[in-house]
Amino acid sequence: MTELAPPPVQEEQGIRRITHWIGGRAVPGESGRSGPVYNPATGRQTGAVDFASAEEVDRTVQTAKEAFPAWRALSLSRRTELFFRIRDLVHERRDEIAKILTSEHGKVFSDAKGEVTRGLEVIEFCCGIPQLVKGGFSEQVSTGIDVYSIRQPLGVVAGITPFNFPAMVPMWMWAPALACGNTFVLKPSEKDPSASIYTAELLREAGVPDGVFNVVHGDKVAVDSVLEHPDVAAISFVGSTPIARYVYEHGTKHGKRVQALGGAKNHMIVLPDADVDMAADAAVSAGYGSAGERCMAVSQVVAVGDVADRLVEAIRERLPQVKVGDGMKPESEMGPLITREHRDRVAAYIDRGREQGATVVADGRETAPDGGGFFLGVSLLDHVSPENDAYKDEIFGPVLGVTRVETYDEALRLVNDNPYGNGTAIFTRDGGVARRFQFDVQVGMVGINVPIPVPVAYYSFGGWKASLFGDSHIYGPEGINFYTRGKVVTSRWPDPATSKVDLGFPQTR
Ligand code: NAD
Q1: How many A from CA of 104 to the centre of ligand 1?
Q2: Ligand 1 center to residue 411 CA distance, Å?
Q3: Is 296 in the pocket of ligand 1 (CB under 6 A)?
Q4: Is the pLDDT of residue 288 over 60?
Q5: pLDDT tens for each residue of 197-226
Q6: Fold of 9-262+467-489
Q7: Beta-carbon neighbour count of residue 330 at 10 Å?
Q8: What is the CATH number of domain 266-448?
Q9: Annotated catalytic sites, by residue?
Q10: How far does CA 500 lie from the centroid of its chain?
Q11: Whole-prediction pTM value?
């Protein structure tokens, strides 16, 4: 087996402390517990993030609860105005946010800017909040009686987010939650927590009142405290499937509304009539972009019929173009993985894949840059059978598998039998087949000649099966529904003609 870089000597100095954000200010943790934050490109620890105790979570929720009545009462016009300001600030500071993402997550700077841009779309959608929370009105349902519906915020809502989109996934949650009039507690990933504190500062600068947006860092202790807290009305979670399932079950048991988005194993089907160059470009960018650490990454190519040899060759030819290196260097196309442990876990699929019958076309350990960074080069496994661990598991790294099948039906069956159902894509020149695939496939987000079909902000994002627990997709119209509850008013006003006071109406109507 090829050796990867050994652990570097830890930096003793220059380790930044990352604190909570409660009630509009940075609040150092008091639990005495913290977690390390690394620059994955160097492998050095750069920060230590405070981990909250149950009491600290409670204080944060109380702060959000106190801020709720005034925030909820703020007029829609004022909230809209604020959202336009937030939109402008995030846009202006896109580069600063992206630098933070690259320094703690490792993704290349251009990709980090792309992350902020996709998050911005959700903020822009929320600028239309007056239109989004409009109810219905039925006049004269019975004589003198009208019925109308309104949507109101829930109160304090919480978001628990993964490491792989430290700015965008929180935006999927806090933007619609705040726009709807809720106050918010964010528990970001402890692996790259700084973007959430930068966001908090930026929201304060935009004029969001203290206590409306709070950040509490931590691990299971903080998550459990949020899930069990009687004053938290709803929880949005994005992360791996086992934790999503746990958050859904534990949160709903405590009476909360929960949407919990889980892991994925996204298949990209390539039919014999596909444009092979287009499919190979797509497989490379969607398989290795952000080092494969995307829930919508293509991790499994399914080559149908005689396209397989041509496709594998076209992908192999493109691999040297994926320059692996520090995300701040302009020539880098792919950065490191999030931690050393994760990198080693991902790399282990190369040997295991081979032992279980796959052909290793490219071994990323051989092309990983030297030094202490958590790098792994691009890896390609061919002839991956559905029994292979590399097929069954969500690898979440730059190891792309190719499975060969004879027919469209076999390919479809693979996707539909998979326990996950986040994203999928089909590459073909035949519109009829594509339409049939869209009809048949049991997955929440489908791409037709588009490898990563993340919906635009005015549609909602969500998978099926083990990729989503709960019935509500995130952001877009379903996000607005999730963060509000309906109220229906039936009202009767006496006919003015019957008034005891003479209002000047004729008595005979
Ligand atoms: P993770 O499940 O390890 O962590 C997510 C959050 O849960 C973090 O805030 C973490 O602190 C918390 N957490 C971790 N272990 C916990 C425990 N035992 N009890 C309570 N809370 C716990 O996920 P990750 O590694 O940060 O992110 C990668 C995963 O997220 C992948 O599986 C990926 O597919 C998934 N993901 C899914 C989507 C989607 O939209 N479906 C989007 C992004 C990432």
Answers
A1: 16
A2: 29
A3: no
A4: yes
A5: 999 999 999 999 999 999 999 999 999 999
A6: Aldehyde Dehydrogenase; Chain A, domain 1 (3.40.605)
A7: 10
A8: 3.40.309.10
A9: 295
A10: 60
A11: 0.96
